[in-house]
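Trying the structure run again after the queue cleared.
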Amino acid sequence: MEELQLIKNCQKGDLTSFTELYDTYVRKIHQFIYYKTHHRETAEDLTATVFMKALENISSYDSNKSAFKTWLYQIARNSVTDHYRAYRQIGDIEDAWDLHTKDDIEKETDIKMRLDSVREYLKTLKADQREIIILRVWGGYGFAEIAEITGKTEAACKMMFGRSIEKLRQDIPMLVLLALFLQ
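Done. Tokens:
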């Protein structure tokens, strides 16, 4: 069924249609949150929160204002921000990259090793630059979609991505850069 029809069904009270929307976006939203928090359980909890908020507020979603995935990513961004405000674990909410995780679950060891080496280099970028790289590289979104999600212009996103990648190319070893793109 088409996404817009699923949304309309949900808005009319048929909440079983939300399952298809959930299945479509849960993995990407979880990845987005994970790359912002670097903590598996936190990402799982916040992903659940995002979809609960989306379900609770589906009636207020307006397809004329933004795409559904943009709306979900905005909820995700706000949920991560709210999480750090509530717990005050770090000084700058957007600099979650400075958190150290002690999460040593076997399934995530390989990903964590690659992320740890890449994270050191990504920490040198500003929070909004990192977010654009996360959305582009790991989220697979185009610049128009990234602009919608971040509230920046498409041109600004392209320029920020290009400059950030160029900085990373100059600063990091090629093997680490490959790990960034091959995840």
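Confidence is low (pLDDT under 50) at residues 98-107. Worth checking whether this holds up in the mutant runs.
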